[in-house]
Amino acid sequence: MVTEDQSRVEDIEWEEPSSETVQKWYSELNMTPESVIDDVHLLREWLRHQPHLPNVADDKMLEIFLFQCKNSIETAKAKLEQYYVAKASMPEYFTDMDPLDAEFQQALQTVCYVTLPKLTPEGYRICVCKMFNSDVTMFRPIHLFKGALMFADMSSRHGHNNGIVIIFDLQDRTMAHVASITYPMLKNFFHCALAAFPIRMKGFHIVNAPTYTTAMITLGKSLLKDKLKKRIHAHSKGIESLAEHIPKDILPPEYGGTYPHSMTELRDLTLHLLKKHRDWFLKEANIKADLSKKKEAGKTMTAETNIFGLEGSFRKISID
After folding, report:
1. Which residue from 8, 47, 133, 251 puts its CA 20 to 30 A from 176's CA?
2. How far apart are CA 257 and CA 243, in angstroms?
3. 15 near 118, Cβ under 8 Å?
4. Phi and psi (nearest 5°) for 72?
5. Which of helix, strand or coil describes residue 277?
6. What gap in Å lies between CA 135 and CA 187, rounded to an integer?
């Protein structure tokens, strides 16, 4: 039986780029149907010869990695390795990936990365991190980051975009919320989102930021190199300036836009789409690197070893 709430979110149209638009993006990267077939075959064969990485039969996935890596086979190889090693090294984000888990659902109803259904004219997908319940006892930052990674993984693997833009809405954040987000938690999330996932980050917008969130914002900036730092926009005078960067017809009313659905409805759509792909998530949770088979400098790779091969140090992330 379909409930009224389910019917409401299922009626929201999810925009995907046309085949002509995708072809235009491919042409700009010198990707042709023939080159894609050849390069995907090379990636599949390369994976087959890596003892610690899984064999991947999903050619569409490899094509997405190739496209998001700007048609660079070597970059795609590096990102594929980082993706599968991250899934093995960070169980807090990549195990128990069940969208029907009651605690997970409650956590995302409290605060959630909500992906907006419409694409920008450039083909960018907009994500909004918003708090819906300020009760700090309901705040689970691990579930927040986990849900964001799950949706990013699902949407990037089942569709196309030309980049991601994130709006961080810090309204109703308290000192207790900020204190519950640890540096390792934030660092690992940045690793996954920026270095391991097949996405290109095009911008960050910070709105409704209380003064006491400055330390958290500074910490986040410290994890980025200058190229990404320059893509951070703080809207200190209100949300009106968001429309200078993102068309109003994409933004919901809470952010001065004309999109006909509220953030609560779009959060419910996010949860609905996660639940719709439950079987896919449960299967994907088991597809990861075997760290016992990965040798680095004559020793076995472990979860304690930095997943990007820099044991004991943290390299800033630079993503184009």
Report:
1. 251
2. 8
3. yes
4. -100, 115
5. coil
6. 25
Distance CA 14, CA 83 (A): 26
What is the rounded end-to-end Cα distance, in angstroms, of the chain?
46
Tokens 């490899």 belong to 62
Cβ-contact 267, 112 below 8 angstroms:
yes
The angle, 0 to 180 degrees and rounded to 10, between the axes of the packed helices 141-157 and 102-110 is 90
What token pair was written down for 169? 């809405």
- What is the distance between the alpha carbons of residues 192 and 88, in angstroms, rounded to a whole number? 12
Residue with tokens 């995302």: 108
Beta partners for residue 166, in sequence order: 127, 204
The structure's pTM equals: 0.85
Calculate mean pLDDT across residues 17-44: 96
Using the predicted structure, report yes or no on whether residue 204 has a pLDDT greater than 70: yes
Q: In which residue are the tokens 């089942």 written?
A: 158
Amino acid identity, residue 248?
K
157 token code pair? 């693997």
